[in-house]
Design a protein that fits this description.
The protein has two helices and no strands. The protein is mostly helical. Helix 1 packs antiparallel against helix 2.
């Protein structure tokens, strides 16, 4: 698999995480049971790092071979 193909997959994943987070946020706003609302917020907190990582990796893999691209130091050795 090419890095450009991987970039598209990471972007799709990031968009899917984003859509799910938005769904959960809407559900949490309308939830009347505080325990269920807390569970929804917990799930949102669990998904946020996954969304952020997918976004970062999409950019990294899309721009990996560009001259002058300053890579995220989190993903370098």
């Amino acid at each position: 698999m090419l890095l450009s193909e991987m970039s598209l997959e990471y972007k799709k994943d990031q968009l899917a995480f984003h859509a799910r987070i938005k769904e959960l946020q809407a559900a949490a706003k309308t939830e009347t049971d505080p325990r269920k609302a807390d569970l929804l917020q917990s799930r949102i907190r669990d998904l946020e790092p996954l969304r952020r990582e997918a976004r970062e990796l999409a950019e990294l893999t899309a721009r990996y071979y560009e001259r002058g691209y300053c890579r995220n130091e989190k993903y370098t050795l």
